Amino acid sequence: MDFINYCDQNKILLAILPPHSTHTLQPLDVVMFKPLSTAYSKELTTHLHSGQGLSVIKKSDFFHLFWKAWVSTFTQGLILRSFETTGISPLQPNVILQRFAKDTPEASDSSTSSSSVYFGKDWLKIETLLRKVVRGESSKELRKISRSLHHISVQNSLLHHENQSLKEVLKTQKKHKNKSKALQFQPHKDYHGGAEFFSPSRVEKARTDERTKQQNQRAEELRKAEMAKLRHANKLYNEKIALERREQRAREKEERDRVKAEKAKEAAERKAQREHNKQARNAEKDVQLPQRGKRKASQSVGPRKKQSCGAVAARRSVVAAEPPAAPRTHTTRSGRIATLHN
C-alpha cells in the first residue's frame, strides 16, 4: 500500500504486468537493457583498445565506463520508444506480435553527400567522385591517384583513432592520480579495541589536524625550496669569487712574466754591451801592438864581487848580538803560569 501511495503522490502510473511476461512487456528488458549492455561492452572494448596495453582495468574504471553507456542509452527518445515498443504507451496490444519485424534500410547513395569536404573514412566517395571527374578509368594515372588517396585516407583515420585513444588514456590516468586521503583519527587514551564512534567534533578535529599537517608540509617544502635557492646563490657567489681569484692570479703571473722578460732583456743588453766593449778593447789593443816596436835587448849581468871573510863575520856578530826573544807564557784555570815552547 505504501508503494501505491508513493506512486500516487509522485504522479506515477502503476502498471501490473502478467506473470512470466516481463521479457516481452517490460520496457527495460525489451528495449533499454540490451542497448545499455551493448554500449557498456563498446565502452569497455574502446577503453581496452585505447590503452594499447599501457593501462590496467581497475574497479574505479567501472562507473566511468558505465556512466558513459548510461548517458548514451537512457535518452528521452529511447525511453519513449521502449514504452511504444511494448505497446504500453500508446496502448497497442498488437504491437507485441510485430516486435521481430525488421525494416530493410535503403542503401544510401554514396555520391549524394551534403558535405562539401570528405573525411578520411569517405574514401569510397572520394574515389567515385574522382572517376566521375576524370574520364578513362583504365588509365594508370587514375589508378595511381586512387591508390594514393586510399593510402592517405587510411593513414589519416589510423592516426586520428590513435590520437583519440591516447587522449582518453591520459584523461583516465589523470583521474586515477587524484586519490582521496582518509582522515587520520586519533584513538582515545582509554581505547582498548571494539566499536568506536566518531562525533562531529572529533571529525572536525581530524580535519583540522589534516589541514595543519598539509600546511606544515607546504611550509617545509617552501623552506626546502628557499634553502635550495640559497645554496644555489652561494654556489654562484663562490664560483664568482674563485673566478676573480683565478683572474687575479693570471694578471699577477702576467705581470711577473713581463717584469722577468724586461729583466732578461736588460741583462741581454748589458751582456751585449760588455761584449761590444770587450771587442772594442781587443780591437784597440790590436791596433796599438804594431806601434810599440821591438823590445830592447837585455843587458848582461856582471860577475858578483866576492866578499871578504871579515865582512861575513861582522854580519854574523851583529846577528848574534841581538837579544833572544822572551818566552811566551799562559795562565791556566787554576791560576798557574805555564811557559809555551816552540
TrEMBL record:
UniProt feature, compositional bias: Basic and acidic residues: 202-222, 247-287
Q: Which residues form the DDE-1 domain?
A: 6-76
Instruction: Write out the ranges of the annotated region (Disordered).
Output: 174-222, 247-342
Could you cite one Gene Ontology molecular function of this protein?
A: nucleic acid binding
- Pfam families, per the entry: DDE_1 (PF03184)
Question: Low complexity compositional bias: what residue ranges?
Answer: 311-323
Biased composition regions of type Basic residues, renumbered to the chain: 292-307
Q: What is this protein called?
A: DDE-1 domain-containing protein
